[in-house]
Each structure stands twice: as C-alpha cells, then as structure tokens.
Write a structure and sequence with these properties.
It is a single chain. This protein is of the alpha/beta class and 247 residues long. It has 11 helices and 8 strands. Strands 1-2-3-4-5-6-7-8 form an 8-stranded parallel barrel, surrounded by 5 helices. Helix 3 links the parallel strand 3 and strand 4. The longest helix is centred in the last third of the chain and has 19 residues. The structure holds phosphoenolpyruvate.
Length: 247
C-alpha cells in the first residue's frame, strides 16, 4: 500500500504523518508492505523519521540522466542518497500533465534501476481510450515498453500500479469487476513477458480514488495486490484505514 502525497503537505505535517503511521504500525503490524512518496524537499526528513520502521520511502519522479544541467529535475542518485528505495515512473500526472511518453518513462525506469531504486511503474488508460475500447491495447503498449526498459528483471524489485486516468482524483473509483478484469489481463500479459512464476508474485496495485470504504471490495479481486493512494493518503487515519482494509 503506497501513499503518493503529490505536491501536498509541509514539513511539520509530514513529520506528524510519519509519527502517527509509524506508531500505529508498530503497535499493530500490517501484512502489507507500506510505502510513502513525499515531495522532494521532504524526502530526507521523512526518511529520517521512518528509519528503522517498516515503511519505505520513494521519489515521485526522477530524471533519466544521472546528473547534469537539468534545472528543476532530480536524479536517481540523489533520490537514493536522500534515503529512497523506490521511484514512481510514469504517473499519469507526468504522462498527461508533462507530456511524458513510453520512451521517456522507459528511460526513467532504467535510471531507477541503475541507482538501486525499485520502480513503481504506473500505467492506465484515459476515459476516451476506455470509451473507444482501447484499454487493453494502451495497457499492453505501456507494459511492453516498461518491461523492455527493466533490463534483466531477474532478482529486481519492481511493481506495477494500474491507475485508470479517469479514476485519479475524481472520486470515480473503478468498479471491482472492472478493476479485476484489467488486473487479470495485466497478470496474464506479465506472465507472457516475465514468466508465469514471476508474474504470479509481482505486485500489481490499483490506484484511482481508493478509500478505506472501497478498498475491501477491490482487494477481493485475486489479481489486485494493494493500492497506490493519492488524496486519501494525506490523512494518516484514512491511509491506515486502507492499509487495514487491504490486510
Ligand atoms: C494517485 O495519484 O496515484 C492516485 C491514485 O490519486 P487518488 O487516490 O487521489 O485518485
């Protein structure tokens, strides 16, 4: 279960969040792996607050190059140095808000790998693509491109997050049957690309207006392994509700 804070929270709020979530998970451990993706300026503080806990930290984006004249960007080396273990690659707000295509997302996945960061690879169709019946072809293109960028996936830690663009931040969650149908398609495709054994244990998270209320019916889908959570992750109580509802 992963919290994507996007461009939210100030340092004091982030620190209070870390203390609350850490305290609760130390009192009552969760079965889920729990990740948090803070905005860049907060990463060192958050990593410090969470050191020695079960929570892992990731960057929301990274530049495909390792260093250089890229004003405003952050490298994989800098994320790793700041305490990250993960990097989001291809979030829809990067794909659609910043025009990032599969080729650039692939270079980011490769950059994450070079720096020992596990990529959380985000994929998803737009509303128009779903209406056109193009959902599976869009996802297949995104997945094939991402997997080819991973290099040798043997022994590598990574995960996919299926996030229908029309469900992100809209309050319009995918129906459990729709989400499971899509995750089932993804599991099969990943089986073809990575081998059935690896695909069976590869985490495929759902993202898109997940809440403590709707996550139990979504997690009941056999191919839904967890959640990438935006809005509801900002409140520690709501986020913990999703963790508990996923266990
Ligand atoms: C996200 O940003 O990855 C996300 C799923 O956002 P929300 O939960 O707000 O829809």
């Amino acid at each position: 279960v992963a919290a994507n804070w996007k461009m939210n929270l100030l340092r004091a709020e982030a620190s209070a969040w870390c203390r609350a979530v850490r305290r609760e998970l130390e009192a009552v451990p969760a079965r889920s792996t729990v990740l948090v993706f803070p905005s860049f300026p907060m990463i060192p503080d958050v990593a410090g607050e969470l050191r020695g806990s079960v929570l892992e930290v990731g960057g929301q984006d990274l530049h495909p190059e390792d260093k250089g004249a890229f004003t405003g960007d952050v490298s994989g080396a800098q994320l790793a140095d700041a305490g990250c273990a993960w990097a989001l690659c291809g979030h829809s707000e990067r794909r659609h808000g910043h025009g990032e295509g599969d080729e650039l997302v692939g270079r980011k996945i490769a950059a994450a790998a070079r720096h020992g960061l596990a990529p959380m690879i985000c994929i998803g169709e737009t509303r128009a693509e779903r209406h056109e019946g193009a959902t599976f072809s869009v996802l297949e293109r995104q997945v094939r491109s991402a997997v080819s960028s991973l290099g040798d996936p043997e022994g590598r830690r990574f995960a996919f997050a299926y996030e229908p663009v029309w469900a992100i931040g809209t309050g319009e969650t995918a129906a459990p049957e729709t989400a499971q149908e899509t995750h089932g398609f993804l599991r099969e495709l990943l089986g073809e690309l990575l081998g059935a054994e690896r695909a069976a244990v590869l985490p495929i998270l759902y993202g898109g207006s997940a809440t403590a209320e709707n996550c139990p019916s979504l997690i009941a889908g056999p191919d839904i392994d967890g959640f990438l959570v935006g809005g509801a992750s900002l409140d520690p109580g709501k986020f913990l509700g999703i963790i508990r509802g996923s266990d």
